[in-house]
Amino acid sequence: MRGRGGLLLAPSLVLLVLAFAIPVGMLVPTSFRPYVPLVGITSGFTARYYTKLVTDSYYLEIIGRTLGLGLTVTALTLVIGYPVAFFLARTRSRWRGWLTILVVFPLLLNLVVRTFGWIALLAQNGLVNQAMIALGLVHGPVVLLFNFAGLLIGLTHIFLPFMVLVLVGAIQNIPRDVEDAARVLGASWASAFARVTLPLSLPGVLSGSILVFVLTISALVTPRLLGGPTYQVMSTLIYDEFLQRLNWPAGSAQALLLTVMVLVLVFLSGLLARRTGARA
Amino acid sequence: MSAGAEPSLAVRRLRKTFGHVVAVDDVSLEAAPGEFLSLLGPSGCGKSTVLRMVAGLLEPDRGEVVLAGEDITRVAVHRRNLGLVFQSYALFPHMTVFDNAAFGLRRRRVAEALLRPRVERMLDLVRLGPLGARYPRELSGGQQQRVALARALVTEPRVLLLDEPLSNLDALLRDEMRVELKRLQQRLGTTMIFVTHDQAEALILSDRVLVMEAGRVEQVGRPEDVYRRPATAFVARFLGRANFLAGVVAQRGADGIVVALDGGLSVVAGARDDLAAGQRVQVAIRQESIRLVPAGGDAARVNRFPVTVAFHAFAGPAHHYVVQLVDGRELEVASPGADTPLQRGTAALVEWAPEDVILLPGGSPAGGAPAPEDPR
Questions:
Q1: How many domains is chain B built from?
Q2: Among B166, B311, B341, B365, which one has the highest count of C-beta atoms within 10 angstroms of its own C-beta?
Q3: Could you report the predicted ipTM of this complex, rounded to two decimals?
Q4: Across the interface, do A187 and B78 touch by the CB < 8 Å criterion?
């Protein structure tokens, strides 16, 4: 059984090593080499790119912004996505298939096209601002682009389908009988949901959240287009280090930090899942 | 039931359709306080739908559900104070056995200090006393179903509804749980409505059995009555194996009815006055009502016919035979397993008592044994 399991894992393990472990490993030595402008990467050893990352307020702000964005997008997709997923998992409507397609539909559009759509909507004199002014909600145009709000709107929209799909699977796995049992035993709909349905869907909430969080903090195209050249997150920063400033050592250190952040998160959530899984 | 006692649960003219399918059609029933009433029928006959409407999980199109005199047809599920036990157990997997059992009392805002002894007593009653801290997945199927029973009973429901609660258990455990369930019911005096497709289970457990087919009630009665005096061919067939023979009422008398079977033989049945001479009937004879005796006796006695043994199999408590009558028709016979078996090809005699003959009005002219698939 063990041997056969290893064989089944072999293709993905090979891919993981070739496309992930080796390239990331190669970043490690690079990140400790000094970069001299106009000369390039020189031999020698320095840890200054790491110290800068954890001391320079410019970098700290970008790291904080990236994490904040990840948490906020995750929370928003969860709040918006859970009711949708619950409906899709429970409805017996014959439109169910179409509604699911509607949820997935944004994924079928090219990312750049979708993002330019948001630029048109969120711009100074875009549709959203015009509508809000017409409705008297605001007096002048609100800045929705090249800031936190713009990224939040764009990323939430893009990653919502992932959250919904993961949650639909999790909620569908909860037997209806269990909910019915709670209600016959005297729990109102809300109480049965809070005490039975929601706790039993937590594994789905956890995996959906990890997925969206990781996708958000590593997203590049959307933050670049909606944040412009100056409103940076970690991924755009890394992109610029590598391709604009050609400072590979600094970019490597930043990329490694991002990778470590993701790995730590995945590890912690694994622990959490095992603990909740032990009860469920 | 009787005019004096108010039924614990009454269902009046309940109807439910799903799209174009009529799942439950004009079903009425009453259960006396402390009664064990089974809803028996094949899968898809609407018995579980009736139960879910009583529980409030489904809304009937028409009809009423009356609990101890109170119309609860439009009362919300969680305010009905009923118990429901599912085939799938439906335990809360994220809660311990104790928390599962305490769920109903906690929703009723019973103080923890009062709740603990009640839950513990109920867990003791279903022999799960020491397992309160376990999680459902650490228990066997039988233990899980006992948790479900305790969880439902601890709230002292006015009526306990059971939806095929034993069907997921293996045969041996099922027998054990039947006894346990019946004892629990006798001890607590709870009115129980028990849905099952297993006729043996219904006969063993019930005070009365309600047989359903295609959304309608076929017959209600004590187990002996529905078994010995089925009202329809469906009931006769569903409650045990029987041989069906078509014929015409030839003669009526005080000491019995003579039925001329289509093949030329005559069968004598017990007296009843609701059948007219010349009326077509189906004769049903249960396989264990037939006695198989060695050939050589007097073959001219009432309900005694010469046969040839066509098939024999030993099934533990009984010998199963298929025997062939002189007109070529076959009968299934079950005789006590302790008897000396008759080998295939042996000539023998079958006989049965007139009072064991079940007469069903109507019946197909093409009848024979074994009976045709469709009872109507």
A1: 2
A2: B166
A3: 0.83
A4: yes
Say how far apart CA A80 and CA A56 lie, in whole Å.
36
Pair B218, B252 in one domain: no
Total residue length of chain B: 376
Identify the pLDDT of residue A38: 86
Is A35 inside any structural domain?
no
Nearest to A180 by CA among B11, B86, B147, B165: B86
Question: Domain end: B185, B201, B228, which one?
Answer: B228
The amino acid at A119: I
Do residues B182 and B36 make contact, with C-beta atoms less than 8 angstroms apart? yes
**Is the domain of B214 the same as that of B177?**
yes
Nearest to B90 among A178, A187, A188 (CB): A178
CATH for B292? 2.40.50.140
Looking at the predicted structure, is the pLDDT value of residue B366 above 70? no
Say if B56 is an interface residue toward chain A (CB within 8 Å).
yes
Three-state SS for A32?
coil
Which of A133-147, B82-96, B106-120 is the least confident region?
Answer: A133-147
Q: How many CB pairs under 8 A join A and B?
A: 70
Q: How many domains does chain A have?
A: 1
* DSSP per-residue codes, A231-254: S--HHHHHHHHHHTS--HHHHHHH
Domain endpoint, select from B200, B228, B256:
B228
- B371 in a structural domain: no
Mutate to test the interface with A, among B72, B78, B163 (most CBs of A within 10 A): B78
Residue A110's CATH number: 1.10.3720.10
User: From residue A230, how far is each of A148, A150, A224, A227 by CA, in Å?
Assistant: 12, 13, 9, 7
How do residues B169-210 score in pLDDT, each as one tens digit?
Answer: 888 888 888 988 999 999 999 999 999 999 999 999 999 999
Strands of the B62-67 sheet, one edge to the other: B21-31, B9-18, B62-67, B70-71
CB atoms inside a 10 Å sphere around CB A216: 27
Same domain, B276 and B330: yes
B189 within domain boundaries: yes
Whether B373 is covered by a domain: the verdict is no
Range(s) of the domain holding residue A100: 47-279
For residue A59, give Cα distances in angstroms to A45, A232, B20, B325: 21, 10, 66, 99
Q: Considering the entire predicted model, what is its pTM?
A: 0.84
Contact list, B80 vs chain A (CB under 8 Å): 184
Amino acid at B152: A
Are B363 and B282 spatial neighbours (Cβ–Cβ below 8 Å)? Answer: yes
Angle B25-B28-B31 from CA coordinates, rounded to 5°:
145
